[in-house]
């Protein structure tokens, strides 16, 4: 099952288990810890007092009482001391042991806060990276729906350099969202006609009609063979590409952050119409080039557009040969865009 970053109040998540960023005494406190205890009621604290505390990096499970979930899993994250005292290993252990407790209780879904990123001072960008990497490794072997819950935008940030690089890439390509589409299209057609009448097109201008046409494929022979079958739909094309990649179905859909049930629908229905984020998630998992990605999108009736920030951000990572869907999702979340997979 996939992992999703969501902006929400963790005490209102309707999942099987939520994770509490607790202190060693398990006696409640500020931040997420205090919010969970207030929402659960005094019975939660009473049970916590019977557990004998919890070591940093470990986790313990209790009932949820007045919360809309079945269990609360309490884990104690490390205090940030510059990264020289095993903080990363302890934080990884928090996520891993919490997930193991959830599976022991036969939970099918779990929601985490960004552990240690509050008063414990763990840098937020690094905390999210640890969370996503640890959870994604766990999901390669296990099936459980995982949510990383961010309370508000001020509590989350990607690195300043990555944000700046993506912003610059968007600025170079983004068509203002308030541009009148029909006027813009007519303008492009007019310029295209004038350019055809006056001579060859300049290198800086690509007419609308040409930009919308399918680009020629200069790709690997195996992909050329696959896409030569013009009547092949998305499902058939995807399954051929997976076979050619050498990955198993499970390896591919997990790398794409796609739910097993959704993949089963795609496999069993040759006429399945996926969403655009689903197609792009598989393109990333298969490590397709930009041309190959556009070809796969056309199988599902889509195209990349420079009028869409979502499309431009995904394009940015493909052009950088970064095919980690979780890294891409962190950036999409930072720019308030839909996520891949899920």
Model description:
By secondary structure, the protein is an alpha/beta fold. It contains 15 helices and 6 strands. The chain has a 6-stranded mixed beta sheet with strand order 1-6-5-2-4-3, sandwiched between helices. Helix 3 packs across helix 4, helix 8 packs antiparallel against helix 9 and helix 10 packs across helix 12. The longest helix is centred in the first third of the chain and has 18 residues. The termini are close together. The relative contact order is 0.11. About 8% of the residues have low confidence.
Could you say which structural class the secondary elements and strand pairing correspond to?
alpha/beta
H/E element sequence: EEHHEEHEHEHHHHHHHHHHH
Strand order of the largest sheet: 1-6-5-2-4-3
Outline the low-pLDDT stretches: 194-219
Q: What is Rg?
A: 24 Å
Task: Summarize the main sheet.
Answer: 6 strands, mixed
Shape: globular
How far do the termini sit from each other? 8 Å
Percent of residues in β-strands = 5-15%
Work out the helix count. 15
Q: What's the total count of β strands?
A: 6
Mean pLDDT across all residues, rounded?
83
- How much helix is in the residues? 40-55%
Main traits of this protein?
six-stranded mixed β-sheet; alpha/beta; 9% strand; 342 residues
């Amino acid at each position: 099952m996939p992992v999703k970053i969501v902006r929400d109040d963790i005490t209102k998540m309707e999942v099987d288990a939520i994770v509490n960023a607790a202190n060693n005494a398990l006696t409640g406190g500020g931040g997420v810890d205090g919010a969970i205890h207030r929402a659960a009621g005094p019975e939660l604290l009473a049970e916590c007092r019977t557990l004998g505390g919890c070591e940093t990096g470990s986790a313990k499970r209790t009932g949820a009482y007045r919360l809309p979930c079945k269990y609360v899993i309490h884990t104690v994250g490390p205090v940030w001391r510059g990264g020289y005292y095993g903080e990363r290993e302890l934080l990884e252990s928090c996520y891993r042991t919490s997930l193991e407790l959830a599976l022991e209780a036969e939970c099918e879904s779990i929601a985490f806060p960004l552990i240690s990123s509050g008063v414990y001072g763990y840098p937020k960008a690094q905390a999210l990276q640890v969370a996503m990497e640890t959870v994604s490794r766990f999901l390669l072997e296990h099936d459980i729906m995982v949510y990383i819950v961010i309370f508000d935008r001020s509590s989350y940030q990607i690195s300043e350099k990555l944000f700046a690089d993506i912003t610059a890439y968007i600025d170079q390509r983004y068509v203002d969202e308030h541009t009148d589409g029909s006027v813009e299209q007519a303008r492009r057609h007019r310029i295209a006609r004038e350019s055809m009448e006056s001579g060859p097109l300049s290198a800086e201008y690509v007419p609308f009609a040409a930009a919308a046409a399918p680009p020629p494929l200069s790709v690997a022979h195996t992909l050329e063979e696959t896409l030569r079958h013009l009547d092949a739909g998305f499902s058939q094309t995807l399954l051929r590409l997976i076979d050619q990649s050498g990955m198993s179905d499970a390896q591919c859909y997990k790398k794409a952050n796609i739910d097993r049930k959704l993949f089963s629908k795609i496999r069993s229905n040759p006429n399945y119409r996926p969403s655009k984020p689903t197609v792009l998630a598989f393109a990333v998992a298969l490590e397709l080039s930009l041309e190959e990605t556009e070809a796969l999108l056309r199988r599902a009736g889509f195209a990349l557009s420079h009028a869409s920030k979502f499309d431009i951000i995904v394009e940015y990572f493909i052009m950088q040969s970064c095919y980690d869907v979780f890294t891409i999702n962190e950036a999409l979340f930072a720019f308030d865009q839909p996520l891949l997979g899920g």
